[in-house]
Automatic annotation (TrEMBL):
PANTHER family: ENDO-BETA-1,4-GLUCANASE D (PTHR33353:SF17), PUTATIVE (AFU_ORTHOLOGUE AFUA_1G12560)-RELATED (PTHR33353). Residues 325-335 have a biased composition (Low complexity). One of its GO terms (biological process) is cellulose catabolic process. This is lytic cellulose monooxygenase (C4-dehydrogenating).
Length: 355
């Protein structure tokens, strides 16, 4: 976009059309005149241009806390209402085109200097319209939404207009020119159950430089886009806390799986031990059965065909071995052997007849 010489002259005639914040709206509800009540209001609406000054953060009087706080919940829509000299007037000169940027920091009673700030909203140039144009059209109201996961507590919320009508030359090169900053800091008490803590740690005195393309910018040249200065917008949902939570959950799941695996191994070991005990018990029982005297076995087991045949075969194989008698004295006579063979054949015949 290119501005004409006539436009430039018109801009030069309105250099004193500055602005500051009158008050805040929460979800469309007016919180009343906040000047020097919950807003750390400057003495006048003059801009700040020196990036090394503490005033670039919360303006003149930025280090003087005020008595009140605006109460809002995480996720609420906030509206900052700007004005020029009186509420609902011309707001700011139309020549003071530029972005509107919003930051947040944990509450401090100091002037806000240092690495404290996190960007939560921004509006620049959309290809046809500047944020300041929208502000004037909306009667001085600039809307944004608090991150829904924002942790409860006290905060400073800083909103600024950067007017670019003289930003073609840097302030450190010509103090009569340079980008004009209109910062305003407002005290808030945020409620909710969120746990996201703003963590960008942006420092205005070192984070903004005179060579930034969004601060050294020729509004009267040809352009199709604009680079808003400062860090990326922080929403809370994509912060390191959320990632750590996911990692922690994964780690806990892995630990649970490991514990389950250990428990399964222990169960398997226990099952093996039980099986070994059963095998040992069975083996012992079998050994005990083998060592039982033949007489006891014969009195407790009903003879079958297979047991009789096996006995007979064993008797023939071991015909020369001593056989236990009721007296415990070995019997080696022929008549005894013949009696045993007859008895065996007789038993076999009886069993065959019964089959």
């Amino acid at each position: 976009m290119r501005y004409t010489v006539a436009s430039a002259l018109a801009m030069a005639s309105t250099v004193a059309a500055h602005a500051q914040v009158y008050g805040v709206w929460v979800n469309g509800v007016d919180q009343g005149d906040g000047r020097s009540a919950y807003i750390r209001s400057p003495a006048n609406n003059n801009p700040v241009k020196d990036l090394t000054s503490a005033d670039i953060v919360c303006n003149v009087n930025g280090g003087t806390p005020v008595a009140d706080f605006v109460t809002a919940a995480a996720g609420d829509e906030l509206t900052f209402e700007w004005y020029h000299d009186n509420r609902a007037d011309d707001i700011i000169a139309a020549s003071h085109k530029g972005p509107i940027i919003t930051y947040i920091a944990e509450y401090t009673e100091t002037d806000g200097t240092g690495a404290l700030w996190t960007k939560i909203a921004e509006d620049g140039y959309d290809g046809s319209e500047w944020a300041v144009d929208k502000l004037i059209a909306a009667g001085g109201k600039a809307d944004f939404t608090l991150p829904s996961g924002l942790a409860a507590g006290k905060y400073l919320i800083r909103q600024e207009i950067i007017a670019l009508h003289e930003s073609d030359t840097a302030y450190n090169a010509n103090s009569a020119r340079g980008a004009q900053f209109y910062p305003s800091c407002i005290q808030f008490e945020i409620t909710g159950s969120g746990s996201d803590v703003p963590d960008e740690a942006f420092d205005f005195n070192t984070g903004y430089t005179y060579s930034d393309p969004g601060i050294l910018f020729n509004l009267y040249g040809s352009f199709t886009s604009y680079t808003i200065p400062g860090p990326d917008v922080w929403t809370g949902s994509g912060s390191s806390g959320g990632s750590n939570t996911a990692v922690a959950t994964t780690t806990k799941a892995a630990a649970a799986t490991t514990k389950a695996a250990v428990a399964t191994s222990a169960a398997a070991a226990a099952t093996t031990s039980v099986a070994e005990a059963v095998i040992a018990t069975t083996t012992s029982a079998a050994q005990a059965a083998v060592t039982t005297e033949p007489a006891a076995v014969e009195t407790s087991i009903v003879p079958t065909f297979s047991t009789i045949v096996t006995s007979a075969a064993a008797t023939q194989v071991e015909s020369e071995a001593p056989v236990a008698t009721s007296t415990g004295t070995p019997s080696t006579g022929c008549s005894s052997r013949r009696r045993r063979r007859r008895n065996a054949r007789r038993n076999i015949k009886k069993l065959s007849d019964n089959q």
